[in-house]
Design a protein that fits this description.
The protein has helices at 5-17, 50-68, 82-92, 133-144, 161-170, 180-189, 195-206, and strands at residues 21-23, 29-30, 36-37, 39-41, 73-77, 96-99, 112-113, 121-129, 148-157, 174-179. The protein is α/β, with parallel strands linked by helices. It has a single domain (5-206), classed as Rossmann fold. Helix 3 (82-92) links the parallel strand 5 (73-77) and strand 6 (96-99). Helix 1 packs antiparallel against helix 2 and helix 2 (50-68) packs across helix 3 (82-92). The longest helix has 19 residues, at 50-68. The two termini are 28 Å apart.
């Protein structure tokens, strides 16, 4: 869900400008899952651009306060959201933790790094939502540590139905600074893509696991 349409368009524009998002309908990327994709998104690149990361940090903080007020803790999902999550926590003057995909195999064998008091009200930060599996795994780890999840916020959401279904089933509220719909609208409006490519990109989102260029 998008909380602010102006921000959604602005963030999409910034991500394209710094090549964090690349649209290549005629030369698709191959994801780790094996899916062929006309889009590639690496929001970690935003950390290398001070003005972009500042804008994203500020918008996260504003939207968190507008939607929920201040939580007790900000949690970033490793590894992509550690950097931006820590910046958001700093902006809000809140404690920060991050969640590994699985517990460490040595030392204290932590999955959650940092101090997370029991019954903490937590906002989870993601850099990107695709199928939602990694986000939901992180949320469940927090819940098993007696945290209460206020919401999940991401920089960008692909708007896949599988992710929406996953979060809805678990009762998790999800917001994103920008998403696929706003990205494609911006790309079409600014003629970054042809009309025929717009149709291709929309069809891909509906069934990415079956899509063929």
């Amino acid at each position: 869900m998008i909380h602010d349409a102006f921000t959604a368009k602005k963030v999409a524009e910034l991500l394209i400008q710094i090549n964090a998002i690349k649209l290549e309908p005629k030369n698709p990327f191959i994801w780790a899952s094996g899916w062929k994709s006309p889009i590639y998104c690496d929001n970690r690149i935003a950390l290398s651009y001070p003005t972009v990361r500042t804008y994203i940090r500020e918008q996260f903080a504003k939207q968190i306060e507008a939607i929920y007020g201040k939580p007790d803790v900000i949690a970033g999902v490793a590894t992509g959201a550690i950097g931006i999550g820590a910046l958001v926590a700093e902006e809000l003057n809140l404690p920060f933790v991050y969640i590994r995909p699985k517990p460490k195999g040595h030392g204290r064998k932590n999955q959650i790094e940092g101090i997370l008091p029991k019954n903490s009200q937590v906002v989870v930060i993601e850099d990107l939502i695709s199928t939602g599996k990694s986000s939901m795994d992180a949320i469940k780890a927090l819940q098993e540590s007696d945290a209460s999840i206020k919401c999940l916020l991401s920089i960008f959401d692909y708007n896949f139905q599988v992710a929406e279904n996953r979060f809805k089933k678990e009762g998790i509220s999800v917001y994103s600074l920008s998403d696929y719909e706003h990205l494609i609208a911006l790309a079409t409006e600014n003629r970054f893509i042809l009309k025929s490519e717009e149709e291709m990109l929309r069809k891909w989102r509906l069934a990415p696991e079956k899509w063929k260029p």
